[in-house]
Design goal:
By secondary structure, the chain is α/β, with parallel strands linked by helices. The protein is 31% helix and 23% strand. The chain folds into 3 domains: 8-109 and 209-229, Periplasmic binding protein-like II (D-Maltodextrin-Binding Protein, domain 2), CATH 3.40.190.10; 115-196, 3-Layer(aba) Sandwich (D-Maltodextrin-Binding Protein, domain 2); 241-306, Double Stranded RNA Binding Domain (2-Layer Sandwich), CATH 3.30.160.40. Strands 2-1-3-10-4 form a 5-stranded mixed sheet, with helices on both faces. The model is unreliable at 1-6 (pLDDT under 50).
């Protein structure tokens, strides 16, 4: 599709932001809007809510109904059909490979990468009583929890933050886990019993990062997005997603990955596990920041070579 010949801030009509309608998704869309307006004060911006399959189907784990794309395919279609100009996404929910015609235009500054334990009676995973029920639909969280505490029972928990908290309050589980980034963006960080360090629970690839997509070739929109891009988030998420790609990553395989800067060095950690926690393989690489992508790819290749069928969906 040809891009507009107009200057980026003289577009005809508003810049249309497509987003899911959950409170967290809207908070992320508002953040993107506010950053756009800070960079381009004369820009007209409109937020358009789009219902996704992942939002509509709440009674089954994502791994059973199609995976991460269920949170993005309707947003992708809206961009390709020129019903919206950009899509705002939690990067951890974005497919490993974007559909043809869709590109990432910017990464907003990354939030806290950690998972939060939400429990009214315990402040640590180790403090949960034997046989306690933990609600989560993340196979990554499930596998790491069961590897540490095989006595616990994990049950599916789908829905947005508020839905999961209602399920917890109604007694469907004794504890659940949520991303600290989402709680911070909703100003709900005080509900976390504790934030789990990556050494205890390695986060999902790109957890805490917001990505903005648009149509390939939409140079005027990409120019608008350029000032929003956070370089530190960009290289970290790019490396983590490259690691995921080497493992053919989807939500049907428990995978964690985290790239961090330590001075002028990168530290990359990754894991792949069996869903029941009975097996887990980890990898770590370090080197110059400029080698982050290569190190992450090498980490992924190493785990992929060591995986047997019990680790694959």
């Amino acid at each position: 599709m040809q891009s507009s010949s107009l200057s980026p801030t003289s577009r005809l009509g508003p810049l249309r932001i497509g987003t899911r309608g959950s409170p967290l998704a809207l908070a992320q869309a508002y953040e993107a809007r506010d950053r756009l307006l800070a960079a381009h004060p004369d820009l007209n911006v409109e937020i358009i809510e789009i219902k996704t399959t992942g939002d509509k189907v709440q009674d089954r784990p994502l791994s059973e109904i199609g995976g991460k794309g269920l949170f993005s395919k309707e947003l992708d279609a809206a961009q390709l059909e020129n019903r919206v100009d950009i899509g705002v996404h939690s990067m951890k929910d974005l497919e490993t490979w974007l559909p043809d015609g869709i590109v990432l235009g910017a990464f907003l500054p990354r939030e806290d990468v950690r998972d939060a334990l939400i429990c009214p009676t315990a402040s640590r995973l180790a403090d949960l009583p034997e046989g306690a029920v933990v609600g989560t639909s993340s196979l990554r969280r499930q596998a790491q929890i069961l590897a540490k505490r095989p006595d616990l029972k994990v049950v599916p928990f789908r829905g947005n933050v508020q839905t999961r908290l209602r399920k917890l309050a109604s007694g469907e589980a004794d504890a659940t886990l949520l991303a600290m980034a989402g709680l911070n963006r909703l100003s709900m960080e005080d509900i976390a019993a504790t934030a789990l360090a990556p050494e205890e629970l390695l986060p999902a690839v790109a957890q805490g990062a917001i990505g903005i997509t648009t149509r390939a070739g939409a140079d005027d929109i990409l120019e608008l997005l350029a000032p929003l891009n956070d370089p530190d988030t960009a290289w970290r998420v790019t490396a983590e997603r490259a690691f995921l790609a080497e493992l053919d990553g989807s939500c049907r395989t428990p995978i964690g990955g985290l790239a961090e800067a330590v001075g002028d060095q990168v530290r990359f950690r990754g894991l792949v596990a069996r869903p029941d926690g009975s097996g887990m393989m980890s990898v770590e690489r370090s080197g110059p920041l400029g080698d982050a992508l290569a190190l992450a790819i090498d980490a992924g290749k190493t785990l992929a070579a060591d995986m047997d069928d019990s680790y694959r969906p």
